[in-house]
Amino acid sequence: GAVVSQHPSWVICKSGTSVKIECRSLDFQATTMFWYRQFPKQSLMLMATSNEGSKATYEQGVEKDKFLINHASLTLSTLTVTSAHPEDSSFYICSARDVGDLIQPQHFGDGTRLSIL
Amino acid sequence: KQEVTQIPAALSVPEGENLVLNCSFTDSAIYNLQWFRQDPGKGLTSLLLIQSSQREQTSGRLNASLDKSSGRSTLYIAASQPGDSATYLCAFFSGGNEKLTFGTGTRLTIIP
Questions:
Q1: Cα–Cα–Cα angle for A82, A90, B48, rounded to 5 degrees
Q2: A90 in contact with chain B, both atoms CB, cutoff 8 A
Q3: For residue range A64-103, what is the model confidence (pLDDT) as tens digits?
Q4: Rounded CA separation B54/B34 (Å)
């Protein structure tokens, strides 16, 4: 089945640091990828939709300048948390849409746990 | 706007029991429904997917149903095992903009 790889799985860094998270579709092309955020014991909240070769579409309330998304190829999207602060600590999950899969809407990565000290 | 609610938020049952997880939604214009499993600190594992035209899907000990008219979906787990302990999320795909709307989740604990 379709595999989505997310890296790193866990990162701890100091406040003010920028952190980049990668999301790769390993065996299919993904023109669309999605970035979710999940707080402890809560459900997934969509942050933005990443479109290959164009600007990402952000959900209401998500700061574009804080969460930079780049989708430069059909297999890679990156999320950069700029000047991260403790309130940005969360679990971030990406998913990818396989255009060749007419049934399964999205395939998910294993998530990245971000902890800002 | 689609709102998805899962009740109960947490559930503990003895091993071997059959159980039902519930998912309610407000907008019946769905394309498909998906049930996921999430282990602590991990990503999502897709369990079952039901197309809008279908009423249920089965995989092993799992059976998911969809009733659009009542705005409900259920996930039935037969003969529960400790390994079934996880958080279960339902999600709706409305087509079009391809967004998945997730439910609030049910945290399931199977007691050995």
A1: 120
A2: no
A3: 999 999 998 889 999 999 999 999 999 999 999 887 776 6
A4: 12
